[in-house]
Amino acid sequence: MALTPLGPENPEKRLLVNTLLARAAAESSTPPQPRVRARSGSHPSRPSLVRLGSLPLDPEQDLRFVQTRLALFGKVTFVISGAFLVMTVGLSGWQNPKPWFGHASHLGATLIGLAFWRIAASRRGLQPDALQVLDSVGSVSISALFALMGHHLYQPYGFYMGLLAVVHVNVARAVIVPSVTTRTLFIAAASFAGLVISRALMPLPDSLPHTALSRARFVLDALSWSLTAGAVAAVASRVIYGLQERALEMVQLGQYSLEEKIGEGGMGEIYRARHAMLRRPTAVKLLTGDASEDQLRRFEKEVQLTARLTHPNTISVFDYGRTPDGTFYYAMELLSGMTLEQLVERHGPQPPGRAIHLILQVCGALNEAHGVGLIHRDIKPANIYLTQRGGVSDVVKVLDFGLVREVRDDGSVTRSNINFVVGTPLYLSPEAILAPESIDARADIYGLGGVLYLLLTGTTPFSGRSVVEICGHQLHSPPTALSARAPLPVPEDLDRLVIACLAKDPRERPQSARELARALSRCGSAGSWSESQADAWWAEREPEELASPSRASQAASAGEGEELPLGKRTFCPAHLARRLGRRLSGEAP
């Protein structure tokens, strides 16, 4: 599938960097191997399909796939041939001297099938040349012994039994083993040659005149059956692996191969992927379904805005693009760990020193975004990811800039989507409810106050049975002091600062992320969470709790899925208007 690559500004520079990275990856690998030429008509940006006859010499897992298929072919051949051997010997017995050599040939073909299976099923990975030799020698040898079996059994039953056995071998191979059409034809020709030779050497039946014409017709009968069966095998090989190639195209986005779906939301799906050359773990998000042009613009705006940010605590976007059919995607770093929401759900309220340490990193990411005129608008625990990076524990990443608004120099706010998305009710600032088109960076400060409140108390500042009730609390209810709700002691200075972040009037909050960071640094608990404590905490976690990339995907798509509880969903004024209308009309909101 041809792609039109998109990317951040300065595409010439981007092309140069990608070229240098590719060259460095190639030079740092093991001694270069000759590349396998792609089939005509294949796109140069897509790796060739893994098939015998055009085997890639790298990567190793692709060769392992072929080896596994060869093992399956050997197993199928062995099981079916062995079953027929037991049946035929049981019916005719070994005591009859005439078919004895035919049964011995049948046994030989069965044993070769067993050896074929066991060699291919070994844990040791075979090299491309060995795989091709195993495929060709094994397939032709089994077919030759089946032809010999048919030659020495009673006629004409023997010949047609041998024919069916050779057809079985070649069709099974075409269906199971990935192979180019020319190779399948070559192996089929070599396999059916034994049948044609056997037919040519057989004595003519008494019902036919013993003439050259009768002999020719006798051989032509075997040749026509062989050509037909060989053609069927070739067509099967072409059709089945043409479908596989189509499936490969569907999971290949530029240089990224999609491996596993790890999450989804209302706007898109998240896949674990790998880069064809760099081999780095990657998460690919793509817009699915019948998206409108407005949704496409929102999705594209999300990645464009995120790609402009370079702070280490903002999730990194590697690449993005759009396929000819309009599917938009972008590749970002794949994280392992948990969101702050999951941290509190599993491990309860956090020590004040750790909460400050985590939010200081978020302040750094938001300070960069605010400095270039970007407002996140959906700061919440599910959009802040806790992980380990580069041997450093307790690193946070700010996710999901899909709701970002860009503030121009004249103070006006531009929309990245048509729906005026305002955020998640539990962490929604009052001004975002009343006048979402006029919010500024202080709305993100309000969201950070809610995140700090959850980290320190284990609960959100406000709760309710409906979105309208939650938004009513955000507009009118003062938050309860943290010390009254937290199971762990909360220092008074930190308590006052969190309540200040949750002020209804934006002018009473810290006016920027940098100002909030300075205020946090002045708190008495700042610096009390050490690097050794963070390392010890992560060392105690089970690998299963941290390694699953699906948790990263859940965070990456948080706020989009309708399966979330009401207060945790991302809503827009259209949602609120509908619910308010129902409330006023007496319906359930």
Entry keywords:
three-stranded antiparallel sheet; 19 helices; alpha+beta; 589 residues; disordered C terminus; Transferase(Phosphotransferase), domain 1; seven-stranded antiparallel sheet; 11% strand
Gist of the model:
By secondary structure, this protein is of the alpha+beta class.
Write the layout of secondary structure elements.
Elements: E1 4-6, H1 11-28, H2 60-92, H3 100-120, H4 128-152, H5 157-176, H6 181-201, H7 212-250, E2 252-253, E3 256-264, E4 268-275, E5 281-287, H8 293-307, E6 317-322, E7 328-333, E8 337-339, H9 340-347, H10 352-371, E9 374-375, E10 384-389, E11 392-398, E12 405-407, E13 413-414, H11 430-434, H12 442-457, H13 467-476, H14 492-501, H15 513-522, H16 531-539, H17 543-547, H18 550-556, H19 573-585
Antiparallel strand pairs: 1-6, 2-3, 3-4, 4-5, 5-7, 6-7, 8-10, 9-12, 10-11, 12-13
CATH architecture of the largest domain: Orthogonal Bundle
CATH class of the largest domain: Mainly Alpha
Q: Beta fraction of the residues?
A: 5-15%
Q: Please count the helical segments.
A: 19
Widest sheet: strand ordering = 1-6-7-5-4-3-2
- The percent range for helix content is 40-55%
Total tally of structural domains: 2
**CATH topology-level fold name of the largest domain:** Transferase(Phosphotransferase), domain 1
- Alpha-beta content class: alpha+beta
Q: What is the radius of gyration computed over CA atoms, rounded to a whole number of angstroms? A: 34 Å
CATH superfamily of the largest domain: Transferase(Phosphotransferase) domain 1
Report the count of strand segments.
13
Q: Specify the overall morphology.
A: elongated
Mean of pLDDT: 74
**Uncertain regions spanning at least 5 consecutive residues:** 1-17, 19-50, 54-58, 403-422, 548-564, 569-589
Largest sheet: 7 strands, antiparallel
